[in-house]
Amino acid sequence: MITCFCMQSVEGTGQKMKSFLILEDGTVFTGTHIGAEKEVISEIVFNTSMAGYLEVLTDPSYAGQAVCMTYPLIGNYGICREDMESGKPWCDGFIVRELSRIPSNFRCDMTIQQFLEDNGVPGIAGIDTRALTRILREKGTMNGMITTDDNYDLEKIIPKLKAYTTGKVVERVTCEEKYTLQGAKEIAENGPLSGSASFHREDYEAGIREKKPSLVRKLNGAGLKVALLDLGAKDNIAKSLAARGCDVTVYPATTTAAEILADAPDGIMLSNGPGDPKECTFIIEEIRKLYESDTPIFAICLGHQLMALATGTDTFKMKYGHRGGNHPVKDLSTGRVYISSQNHGYVVDMDKLDPKVAVPAFVNVNDGTNEGLSYTGKNIFTVQFHPEACPGPQDSSYLFDRFIEMMQGGHHHA
Amino acid sequence: MPKNPNVKRVLVIGSGPIVIGQAAEFDYAGTQACRSLKEEGMEVILVNSNPATIMTDGDIADKVYIEPLTTKVLEQIIIKEKPDSLLPNMGGQAGLNLGMELDESGFLKAHGVTLLGTTAKTIRKAEDRLEFKETMEKIGEPCAPSLVVDNIEDGVAFAKKIGYPVVLRPAYTLGGSGGGIAHNQVQLEEILANGLRLSRVGQVLVERCIAGWKEIEYEVMRDSAGNCITVCNMENIDPVGVHTGDSIVVAPSQTLGDKEYQMLRSAALNIINELEITGGCNVQFALHPTSFEYCVIEVNPRVSRSSALASKATGYPIAKVAAKIALGYTLDEIKNAITGKTYASFEPTLDYCVVKIPRLPFDKFITAKRTLTTQMKATGEVMSIANNFEGALMKAIRSLEQHVDCLRSYDFSALSAEELLERMEIVDDQRIYIIAEAIRKGIDYDTIHRITMVDHWFIDKIAILTEMEERLEKEPLTVELLKEAKRIEFPDNVIARLTGKAEDEIKNMRYENGIVAAFKMVDTCAAEFAASTPYYYSVFGSETEVVESHPKKKVLVLGSGPIRIGQGIEFDYCSVHATWAFAREGYETIIINNNPETVSTDFDIADKLYFEPLTPEDVENIVNVEKPDGAVVQFGGQTAIKLTESLMKMGVPILGTKAEDVDAAEDRELFDRILEETEIPRAAGGTVYTAEEAKAVANRLGYPVLVRPSYVLGGQGMQIAISDQEIEEFMAVINRYEQDHPILVDKYLQGKELEVDAVCDGTDILIPGIMEHIERTGVHSGDSISVYPAPTVSEKVKETIAEYSRRLAKALHVIGLINIQFIAMGDEVYVIEVNPRSSRTVPYISKVTGIPIVDLATEVIIGKKIRDLGYEPGLQPAADYFAVKMPVFSFEKIRGAEISLGPEMKSTGECLGIAKTFNEALYKAFLGAGVSLPKHKQMIITVKDADKGEAIEVARRFEKLGYIIYATRSTAAALNDAGVKARKVNKISQESPTVMDLILGHRIDLVIDTPTQGRDKSRDGFLIRRTSIETGVNCITAMDTAAALVTSLENAETQGEMTLIDIASIARRGV
Fold it and tell me: pLDDT per residue over B1038-1056, tens digit each?
């Protein structure tokens, strides 16, 4: 019944190369080198998810940033390629307390060490990640450098660190040309992304038990066409819609509103993505046009910020952002609190919000920041958090169903 | 939603005596819940039969009833106190069952009492096997194929259908009691018969065996608005097949990817939503190791041992939040007490790794089977925190206090690879040591995994530890190597052993190179938010977060470690009260402890909590950072006392009785000198190291003699020997471990045993009362029924005891607590032993006399005098009540354990009977201990020759009560000769029907079996006693206990409505 998976070879225990993490405030952490051998300057952020490091690595929203995992034991289950949220890791660097010597999981394809090397991501291990997190919490997000050069000169490096900005990163991470993901024709096998797993395959085959997935319950999106504007989209956004039966066409971020609208989608999905939303001047203009159209729109994270900017609201950079899988958000329409997956450093400024344009739909229970907007007189709702999860809780996946209802005309928001 | 305004008076049910599967965690949960309710302005009425708990203190609840936990008693309390609500989910399974019974009978409704928290309907859905399965099927959550059966035939038929092995789980039982895995029909019939009898509703679940799958647990909270969070998840290193209470557990899960983690998390939320649980809940899953297939094992709709562990592992106060939810609050309205910024509606995230190891009682029950099954056997547990798994495991191992400090502590090096593989098939508490040895012998991970089903990741972590052992042995000890060894928490003494250096050398090398422990905070949020709660753990190679504090005075309170037989929850009671008392006097308080089940490790008890092993090195790390003005060791049991010398070496003054005086009480020669000076007699004796010396002393004194190691609690290893052969046997048992101190051999005196706990300020002594044991000397005081005030001794004896206590306390310069045990033979009083520290009777005597002994002892330690505290020194006048403390055992959980009472303690807990008359108090105590007679009015008596005289009198009284008496040959003859009608039954070796057949016929209420001397477990008596216990028949092994029971039964005939006594009112009067 239980088969043994192939064991990955134990990492070489030879000489470990020293590596340094230098912050713009002059703090230097000394650790050991992991991943690709290269020096990198990036914005240093921390993520508090205890599992899901591969999803974090491959989340395009981390483009231009180096991620520190606060959970100290990383790589325990290796790399399971099918869990990747995009084609490759996007973050500039990876900072961990400890990488597991062996991976252990039945789906494991390779070690995380190999994955980082193969994909050119440098990193540092063995540093006091909690101390780093405390610095970022106290002083706010900072730029930093990961280097193996022990002759580093702080006086030369720090000005470089201060000058660094992530710049226009959306263009880097978006898809090159449009493509379509066909909607599912039947409810998926039970599994981690559809709900309860079966107990006995034999029972299934014998028709003893019905499939009763808890997450994706029905093909309620069958026949609907969704246009997904890829601003650095995580794969599970399209997959979540496709699993419900929607045909999803993914467009590069440079696509004009006219092109999208010409395809006459039933709804438009604006994805997550990296960087400062205000850098996306072209996209904001196009989104304004999408807003003007009467097409239902659902936006996540960067998409949510861009819709706000397109409609006259402002955004600002938070001290150290929300990155993790434990943030409570309250759905103001029901009063229910959900635990959400989050990854953002910018947030919509509620003081600049005109209620004639949009009203808050979700709020962060911890710090009261905005987590979602409902657009007045429009079939548009947007959220700051990630209903597609991966990594993190799947509690808010019901929002995809809400979007489907909206596309079907059943749900006129606010 | 704001709190429900209709809730004003809440009745909280505690969990009763500590038994295996239901331990201190419910005192922790109950105490936290009561404080949480009082914070909301509720009047709290508490019922719990266990006097050793903190929850039964007058300052935790408004009304406190230490009464038997039966529906009848609860009904009486409800009528008297008129609560408007009942909170049943804080008292474990016992509390939940009672709440359910009261609800089912309609009593609650009739008296206008609402069940708070989870509803009765929900509890039934979660607890009733059939309803649970149907519910899971409805929402598509998979369960292993199973069938609920109420008879053996159906069980056999179903097992045939699904195939062996099958797991058996009785409904509504504790710690998996009566459950197990059956590999064939014979086993099935045996386990099933037992399980059906133990289940409250006569139901057992027969289930397809999923042993070997990963066992994963989620702690989930849900409020009445339907908001759900998971507090944490945990992964059992021992896969499915070992009860989670007996498994090594790690939090968070280590081998699950986000996909598995979220799949099970979503399932847990799905389940708690469907069950509509309001409050805390524990969901256990089995996850197939090589697919996404999983199934739900069970759901506990209440706080549990796992929830206590999750609370301590994350800092999220589950019981406190559950109590607020019960009052109507929603999660987003309850503040997170740790950060003070966030709300209870978030999920803790960990930036460290937590390991729990069970404390199994096989050192106490050396004849017991060490095998671990789905029936829990652990009496307690330790938890440790580190930022790597290896380190957390190492810290947890040395926290156990079972002569283990690394993976070499059990030596299996003599076993060949083949023998190791064979040994590895056995699932017991030594399995990780076997795995470690297998790795050393070069057995590959796949083979180890195939046999044990322990995940490769854990096997590799064990390998990292064995590789470090080897490096330390073979390589020169460089600074780098030392750093790495400390990072994975090798203690200095182990490094010293492996490198062949002195421990001090290692320590000096560390200090010279700055390799010192740093302390990190448990903050629920991985440092994302600033936290103010000082809850710390140590790591090496990091920056320390402890904010240096320089209060006027700073005191270190050493906790008592894991709950074990002989050192239970009562020492946590003492530690917590001492901490509170010091705080009242303006001290900054620091607690060090490693037991996740206790109140003392709640983050808001002391000013600072260090969750650390209680070894000299670990304590020194904390001392280096905190630099306390003093430490108190007298409240934390033997665990704390053992640290005295080390603390003095570190330069920490011991507050209260000085170390040399503690020594004087334990050191035979010094103590003899003190007895001579104070003219107090004791039994003659001597100190020995070897069996030869022991035999010489024994022969000089004449048998029987008492043999025991010094410096132990709970009479560990203590035995009465009647021959040279037994001396050899007992000495071999004691000398299994190297003894730091000599072994004592004393003449055994049989008389009345009496005990006092007293407070001494160096001049005066305050004796709250004298306790008398029902059983004569020879039965450990912790296993004796103890009565206050002493009912049968003369005034002269009492005066002598008071006088001797005064002399001893003075001669030993006691400042603080002292416990003294005496023997009275006629009017002659002998001292047995003196313990200048807290004892297990302190909470009990405090509560029944209303004299807060621990508070007074703390004041005295600080420098106050008894007279200044408003007390007249000397023996205090007896209270208006009789209080009977009854030991409670968990023998049914430990297969193969000898149940007969002797000088070595075996009880796991206790309950109290308190009443105006001795007889009623005794009746209540038996009732509280679960001795509910009669059912069939049939009993068996089989006693040793010396007891026959007394047996006749006892039997005559049982006969008068209408009992049919069966007896073995010689006992029957003695009874019949004396005119007591007894039916003779055959011994086991004789032809059927034998005494065994009689017991297995389920028609016997009681067995009185007094064992002949010696530990020979092949004897008939042993089998009779074990069979009785395992089939749920009350078995008594001392004539005094039997006499007490019959007294109680005689009283029961005339007992009408019980009188109820509010302990809180005694406490208030006392102060």
Answer: 999 999 999 999 888 777 7
CATH 3.10.20.580 fits B9-120, yes or no: no
CATH number for the domain spanning A38: value is 3.50.30.20
For A299, the domain range is: 172-184+219-407
The pLDDT of B169-178, averaged and rounded, is: 65
Mean pLDDT on B263-284: 93
Q: Point out the least confidently predicted range of B418-427, B777-786, B799-808.
A: B777-786
pLDDT of the residue at A87: 95
Interface A:B, Cβ pairs < 8 A: 227
What ipTM goes with this model? 0.94
Q: Same fold for the domain at B9-120 and the one at B519-655? A: yes
Q: Do B262 and A104 touch (CB under 8 A)?
A: no
Q: Do A133 and B525 touch (CB under 8 A)?
A: no
Closest residue of chain B to A213, computed from CA coordinates: B140
In sequence order, what DSSP letters do the residues of B585-653 get, joined into one string? TT-EEEEEE--TTSSTTSTTTSSEEEE---SHHHHHHHHHHH--SEEE-TTSHHHHHTTHHHHHHTTPP
Strands B380-386 and A18-23: unpaired
CA dihedral B754→B759→B763→B767, nearest 10 degrees, is: -40
Between A192, A214, A325, which is nearest B260 by CB?
A192
* Option in A73, A134, A367 nearest B389 (CB): A73
By DSSP bridging, strand A122-125 and strand B786-788 are: unpaired
Whole-angstrom CA distances from B442 to B306, B394, B421, B438 are 36, 22, 12, 6
Does B162 or B33 have the greater pLDDT score?
A: B33
B290 touches chain A (CB under 8 A): yes
Segment A200-225 shows an average pLDDT of: 67
> What's the DSSP call for residue B984?
E
The fold of the B656-680+749-774+790-873 domain, in CATH, is: D-amino Acid Aminotransferase; Chain A, domain 1 (3.30.470)
Q: Which residues in B lie closer than 8 A to residue A193 (C-beta atoms)? A: 259
The total of structural domains in chain A comes to 2
Farthest-apart Cα atoms in chain A, separation: 71
Please give the distance of CA A166 from its chain centroid, rounded to a whole number: 17
Contact assessment for residue A348 and residue A299, using Cβ atoms and an 8 Å cutoff:
no
Q: Are residues A111 and A177 in the same domain?
A: no
Residue A33 included in any domain: yes
Interface probe for B, chosen from A4, A108, A112, A130 (most Cβ of B below 10 Å), is: A130
For residue B742, whether the previous peptide bond is cis, meaning omega lies within 30 degrees of 0, is: no
Q: What is the mean pLDDT of residues B914-941?
A: 90
Contacts of A203 in chain B (CB under 8 A): 145
**CATH value at residue A267:** 3.40.50.880
Q: Do A104 and B457 touch (CB under 8 A)?
A: yes
Q: Average pLDDT, stretch B108-119?
A: 92
Give alpha helix (H) positions in A81-153: 112-118, 129-139
For residues B278 and A354, give the distance between their C-alpha atoms in angstroms, rounded to a whole number.
39
- Give A80's contacts in chain B (Cβ within 8 Å): 257, 259
Distances from the Cα of A103 to the Cαs of B127, B257, B551, in angstroms? Answer: 38, 11, 48
Q: Where are the domains of chain B?
A: 9-120, 145-209, 356-515, 519-655, 656-680+749-774+790-873, 684-748, 933-1037
Mean pLDDT, to the nearest integer, of A62-77? 97
Which residues on chain B are in Cβ contact (under 8 Å) with A196? 139-142, 267, 270
Q: Is the pLDDT of residue B340 over 80?
A: no
Q: Chain A contact for B183, CB < 8 A?
A: no
- Which residues of A have a catalytic role annotated? 301, 386, 388
Q: How confident is the model at residue B711 (pLDDT cuts 50, 70, 90)?
A: low
pLDDT surpasses 60 at B725: yes
B460/A4 Cβ within 8 A? no
